[in-house]
UniProtKB/TrEMBL annotation:
Belongs to the PNT beta subunit family. It is found in: Cell inner membrane. Residues 9-462 form the NADP transhydrogenase beta-like domain. It comes from the Bacteria. The chain crosses the membrane at residues 6-25, 37-54, 60-82, 94-111, 131-148, 168-186, 192-211, 218-237, 243-262. It comes from Motilibacter deserti. This is NAD(P) transhydrogenase subunit beta. Its EC number is 7.1.1.1. The lineage of its organism: Bacteria, Bacillati, Actinomycetota, Actinomycetes, Motilibacterales. The transhydrogenation between NADH and NADP is coupled to respiration and ATP hydrolysis and functions as a proton pump across the membrane. Pfam families: PNTB. It catalyses: NAD(+) + NADPH + H(+)(in) = NADH + NADP(+) + H(+)(out).
C-alpha cells in the first residue's frame, strides 16, 4: 500500500470517527450543535479525500472536474441558503426533501456504476445485490419523500388517499420489484434494473399517499432510515467505507427513531405503512360539535391565573410553530419565573410534524434544556400543576385516547386534564390530524383563549406585566 493510499484511508477513518461521535453528541440538545458541526467536518474531509483520489488516479477529465466542482458549489450554496431561510414551520418539509435528494442521488450513483460495469467484464454478485437494493429502495425513498413533502406543505392533501385495490396493487408491485431484482443480480439485466427503478418510484407514491398527516413524524423517520440504507448500499457498490459507515449510522438511527415514534403513538409500524390514519388537520370548527359548552376566556382572565400560579406547565404543539411564537412563549415563561413560578415545558414525542420538532423550536428561543420535560417524566406532575397552558397542541392532549373506539384510542397522551386549571390557546375549535374533536376543550376546567398563538402570547406578556406592576 502506498503512502497516498494509507493517508486517504486514515482520513476516511477520521471521518467515520467524526460521524460516530457526532451522532452521539446529537443525542442531547445541549451538545447537538457540536455534533452537527463535527459530522459536517468529517464529511468535508471525506469529500476532499475523494477528490484527491480522483485527481491522483487521473480517472476524470478536466471537464468532469469542472462539472463536479460546479455541482458541489451550486448544491452546497442551495442547501446553505435554503437551510438558513427556512421557517421552523417548514423544517419537516425540508428534512423530507433532503431525504428525497439523498435517496435519489444514491440510487443514481449505483445505477451509473452498474451500467459501467455491465459494459465490461460483468458485475460482481455482491455489487449486483447492493445495486438492486440501492435502486429499488432509493427510488421508493425519493418518490415517497416528495409525496410526504407535498403533504406537509399542503400541496398534497394531508388526508389519507386510499383507492380500491391499493394494497393489492402495492403487493403486486413489490413482487415485481423482487423478481426484477433477482434477475438483475443473476443476469446483469439493465432493462430490468430500469424497471426496478420505475416500480420503486410508483411504490413510493402509492405507499405514502394512503398515510394520513397524523403519522407524518413516523413516516419522516422511516424514510430517513431508508435514505441511510441506500447510502450504505451505494458505499458497497463504490467500495467506499465512508459511505458505508455514514449510511449505516443514518439507517440504524432512523430505524430506532421510527420504532420509538411508533411506540409513542401506540401504533404498530405495519399499521402506519398500511395507511389510513389522520385527516388533514384543516377542519375549522367554531363551536363544540358534541353540543357541550365551551368556556371562553380573555387575556386578563388568563394573566390572572398565570400571575398567581405556583406551578405552570406549558404544552407546545404545531400551532406554536405555525405562528412562530417560540420567542413569545419563552418571554412569558421568563416573566413568570421572575415572580417565583415553577415553569416547565411538557413535550410529547410526536408533537409537531417531525421527531424533536418542539425541542428544536424551543431551543431556537434559548429555552433552557432542563425545562423541557418528556412525556413519561412530566405526566405525574400535571396533578400538582396549577395551570397547564396548551399552545397549539391538539391530538396529543385529547383524553379520547383513553377510551376505546376512537381514532386515537391507546395513543399515549399528555395528562393535561389532570391539572387544576387548563388554558388552551387556539384560533378555533378546529380538529387535529386525527380529525376528531378534542374532549379537553369541553372540560369544565378548561378555558379556551381563541387567538393566534403569537399575538395571544404577546398579549399575555403585557397583561401579566400590567397586573403585577
Amino acid at each position: 500500500m502506498s503512502d497516498f493510499d494509507a493517508g486517504v484511508r486514515l482520513v476516511y477513518l477520521a471521518a467515520a470517527v467524526c460521524f460516530v461521535v457526532g451522532l452521539h453528541l446529537m443525542g442531547s440538545p445541549t451538545s447537538a450543535r457540536r455534533g452537527n458541526l463535527l459530522s459536517a467536518a468529517g464529511m468535508a474531509a471525506a469529500v476532499l479525500a475523494t477528490f484527491a483520489v480522483v485527481a491522483h488516479e487521473g480517472t476524470i477529465t478536466n471537464t468532469g472536474t469542472i462539472v463536479l466542482v460546479l455541482a458541489l458549489l451550486v448544491g452546497g450554496a442551495a442547501g446553505l441558503v435554503t437551510a438558513r431561510r427556512v421557517q421552523m414551520t417548514a423544517m419537516p418539509q425540508l428534512v423530507s426533501l433532503f431525504n428525497a435528494v439523498g435517496g435519489g442521488a444514491a440510487a443514481l450513483v449505483a445505477l451509473d456504476d452498474f451500467l459501467r460495469l455491465s459494459d465490461g467484464p460483468g458485475v460482481p454478485t455482491r455489487t449486483g445485490v447492493a445495486t438492486a437494493l440501492d435502486v429499488g429502495i432509493g427510488a421508493l425513498t425519493f418518490a415517497g419523500s416528495l409525496v410526504a413533502t407535498g403533504k406537509l406543505q399542503g400541496v398534497v392533501t394531508g388526508r389519507p388517499v386510499v383507492f380500491p385495490g391499493a394494497r393489492a396493487l402495492n403487493a403486486a408491485l413489490l413482487l415485481v420489484a423482487v423478481a426484477a431484482g433477482v434477475v438483475v443480480v443473476a443476469d446483469d439485466n439493465v432493462p430490468l434494473l430500469l424497471l426496478l427503478l420505475a416500480v420503486g418510484l410508483v411504490l413510493g407514491v402509492t405507499l405514502v399517499l394512503p398515510i394520513g398527516g397524523a403519522d407524518m413524524p413516523v413516516v419522516i423517520s422511516l424514510l430517513n432510515a431508508c435514505t441511510g440504507t441506500v447510502v450504505a448500499m451505494a458505499g458497497f457498490v463504490l467500495e467506499n467505507p465512508v459511505l458505508i459507515i455514514a449510511g449505516a449510522l443514518v439507517g440504524a438511527s432512523g430505524a430506532i427513531l421510527t420504532v420509538l415514534m411508533a411506540q409513542a403513538m401506540n401504533r404498530p409500524i405495519r399499521n402506519i405503512v398500511l395507511g389510513g390514519f389522520g385527516g388533514g388537520g384543516s377542519v375549522e370548527v367554531v363551536a363544540s360539535s358534541s353540543g357541550l359548552p365551551v368556556r371562553e376566556v380573555t387575556a386578563d382572565d388568563v394573566a390572572m391565573q398565570l400571575a398567581y400560579a405556583e406551578k405552570v406547565l406549558i404544552v407546545p404543539g404545531y400551532g406554536l410553530a405555525a405562528a412562530q411564537a417560540q420567542h413569545e412563549v419563552s418571554e412569558l415563561a421568563e416573566l413568570l419565573e421572575a415572580r417565583g413560578t415553577d415553569v416547565a415545558y411538557a413535550i410529547h414525542p410526536v408533537a409537531g410534524r417531525m421527531p424533536g420538532h418542539m425541542n428544536v423550536l424551543l431551543a431556537e428561543a434559548d429555552v433552557p434544556y432542563p425545562q423541557l420535560k418528556e412525556m413519561d417524566e412530566v405526566n405525574p406532575e400535571f396533578a400538582r400543576t396549577d395551570v397547564a397552558l396548551v399552545v397549539g397542541a391538539n391530538d396529543v392532549t385529547n383524553p379520547a385516547a383513553r377510551r376505546a373506539g376512537t381514532a386515537i384510542s391507546g395513543m399515549p397522551i399528555l395528562d393535561v386534564d389532570q391539572a387544576r386549571s387548563v388554558i388552551v390557546i387556539k384560533r378555533s375549535m378546529g380538529h387535529g390530524y386525527a380529525d376528531i374533536e378534542n374532549e379537553l376543550y369541553t372540560d369544565p376546567r378548561t378555558g379556551m383563549f381563541f387567538t393566534d398563538a403569537k399575538a395571544g402570547l404577546a398579549t399575555l406578556v403585557q397583561s401579566v406585566k400590567t397586573l403585577v406592576g
